[in-house]
UniProtKB/TrEMBL annotation:
InterPro entries: Thiolase, Thiolase-like, Thiolase_C_2. SUPFAM superfamilies: Thiolase-like. This is Acetyl-CoA acetyltransferase. It comes from Streptomyces omiyaensis. Pfam families: Thiolase_C_1 (PF22691). Residues 249-392 form the Thiolase C-terminal domain.
C-alpha cells in the first residue's frame, strides 16, 4: 500500500485535489423549503465548513433540478462558474461528478468545484405537487419493459432473487442490512428514522416486491448536501485538515434488463477496481465504506463487487465481526434518501475521516481515526456506478 497522500496527481505533473468542505442542509421532514433553498443552505454551510471565500469557486456540478440544472442552480447561488458538470446517472451521479471535478482541478481547469444537491421529494408527494413514480419513463429502450409492470423496485427484486437462487443468500441476511442501518441511524441525531428494528420486523412487514418488504426499501425524505473540492495550493487556507481524493472509477452497465449479462454483478465491480488501482490501495486497506442502499440487496452485492468478500458471500460477510463498517449514518434505509443520494455518501465519508461523524464514529483497532474511506454510488437499477477512495494525511 502506498502511504496516504503520496498517490497524488502532482507526482504526474497534476495537482492533488482535496475535499475542503462538506455539509448537509436541513433533512428529513422539511415542509417549508424549496429544492433551490436546500441547495443554497447546503452550499453556504459547506463553504463555511471550508473556511474559504465563495469567490474562489469557479466550478459547479449539479443535476436533477430545473431545465438547465447547473445554469439554474448557479444563478440561484449567485455563481458564474467557468467549469460545469450536469452528468446525471441516478444515484451514482455524485461520485461520477466528483471524479470529473477532481480531474478538472488536477488538470488546472478549475480551482474549486462545488457539488450541490437538494430535493423535497417527500414534501412534494405529501403536498400532492407530484406523485410517486413507479418507473423512469416509457420512452426509448424502456418502452419494451414498462407496459408489463416492470417497476424500479421490481428490477432490484429480480436481481435479489437471482442472487438468492444462485448463492443461497437468505431473506434473513438481507433483513440484517436494514437492521444494521437502523442501529447506526439510532446513534445519528440527523437521521430520519431512529427506532431500532429486528430481523423479524423487517421480514413481517408489508410486501413491496418479493423478496423486499417495506423495510428492505429506502425511505423517502427531503434534504440536500454539498461538497467543495479544491486544488492543493488552497489547502493551507482551509479551516480543517484536508481529505484527499486518492482514486476514482466510473462505469455504466445497461438500461434494459435483457442487456444485463448477470443480475448478480453490479457495475461497482468495474468502478471499484478502477478506483482502487488509481488510489494504490486495496479493499483490505479501507476503514469505512459508504455504499448506496436504496434496497438491502444493493449493500451486499456492492460489497462483493468492490472486493470486500467473494461473490456470493456478501450476506455472511456483512454479518461477520470483521466486516468493514458500512453506512455509518444509517444510509438511505434509515437516515435520509431525498432522491440521488450519492452526495450524502461523500459527506459521511469525509466526516468519518475527520472524526466529525454526528453518530457512530469509526475507529481503527488502535483507537485512531480512519485513514481511508470509500464512497460507492449506484444509479438506476444497477445501471451505473461511481466509486471514490478518500484518505487523510
Amino acid at each position: 500500500m502506498t502511504a496516504i497522500g503520496t498517490t497524488s496527481r502532482s507526482s504526474r505533473g497534476r495537482r492533488r485535489v482535496a475535499v475542503a468542505g462538506v455539509a448537509l442542509s436541513d433533512c428529513g421532514r422539511v415542509d417549508e423549503a424549496t429544492p433551490h433553498a436546500l441547495h443554497a443552505q447546503a452550499a453556504r454551510r459547506a463553504l463555511a465548513d471550508s473556511g474559504l471565500d465563495r469567490s474562489l469557486v469557479d466550478g459547479l456540478a449539479s443535476a436533477g433540478l430545473g431545465t438547465l440544472a447547473p445554469v439554474e442552480v448557479a444563478e440561484y447561488l449567485g455563481l458564474r462558474p467557468t467549469w460545469v458538470d450536469s452528468t446525471a446517472v441516478g444515484g451514482a451521479t455524485w461520485e461520477v461528478m466528483a471524479a470529473h471535478a477532481a480531474d478538472a482541478i488536477a488538470a488546472g481547469h478549475a480551482k474549486a468545484v462545488l457539488l450541490v444537491y437538494g430535493s423535497t421529494a417527500r414534501a412534494d408527494v405529501k403536498a400532492r405537487r407530484r406523485t410517486s413514480n413507479l418507473s423512469f419513463g416509457a420512452r426509448g429502450p424502456l418502452q419494451f419493459e414498462v407496459p408489463y409492470g416492470h417497476t424500479l423496485v421490481a428490477k432490484y427484486a429480480m436481481a435479489a432473487r437471482r442472487h438468492m437462487h444462485r448463492y443461497g443468500t437468505t431473506p434473513e441476511q438481507l433483513a440484517e442490512v436494514a437492521v444494521r442501518a437502523r442501529a447506526h441511524a439510532a446513534l445519528n441525531p440527523e437521521a430520519m428514522f431512529r427506532e431500532p428494528v429486528t430481523v423479524d420486523e423487517v421480514l413481517s412487514g408489508p410486501m413491496i416486491a418479493d423478496p423486499f418488504t417495506k423495510l428492505h426499501c429506502c425511505i423517502r425524505s427531503d434534504g440536500g448536501c454539498a461538497v467543495l473540492l479544491v486544488a492543493e495550493e488552497y489547502v493551507p487556507d482551509t479551516a480543517k485538515a484536508p481529505v484527499w481524493v486518492l482514486g476514482t472509477g466510473e462505469h455504466v452497465s445497461h438500461t434494459t434488463m435483457s442487456e444485463w449479462e448477470d443480475f448478480t454483478v453490479s457495475p461497482a465491480a468495474v468502478s471499484g477496481r478502477l478506483a482502487f488501482e488509481r488510489a494504490g490501495v486495496t479493499p483490505d486497506d479501507i476503514d469505512v465504506a459508504e455504499i448506496y442502499d436504496a434496497f438491502t440487496y444493493m449493500t451486499l452485492v456492492t460489497l462483493e463487487d468492490l472486493g470486500f468478500c467473494a461473490k456470493g458471500e456478501g450476506g455472511a460477510y456483512f454479518a461477520g465481526k470483521d466486516a468493514v463498517p458500512v453506512n455509518t449514518d444509517g444510509g438511505g434505509l434509515s437516515a435520509c434518501h431525498p432522491g440521488m443520494r450519492g452526495l450524502f455518501l461523500l459527506v459521511e465519508a469525509v466526516r468519518q475521516l475527520r472524526g466529525e461523524a454526528p453518530g457512530l464514529q469509526v475507529r481503527r483497532p488502535d483507537g485512531a481515526l480512519p485513514r481511508l474511506a470509500l464512497a460507492s454510488g449506484t444509479g438506476g437499477w444497477f445501471c451505473s456506478s461511481g466509486t471514490v477512495v478518500l484518505g487523510r494525511d
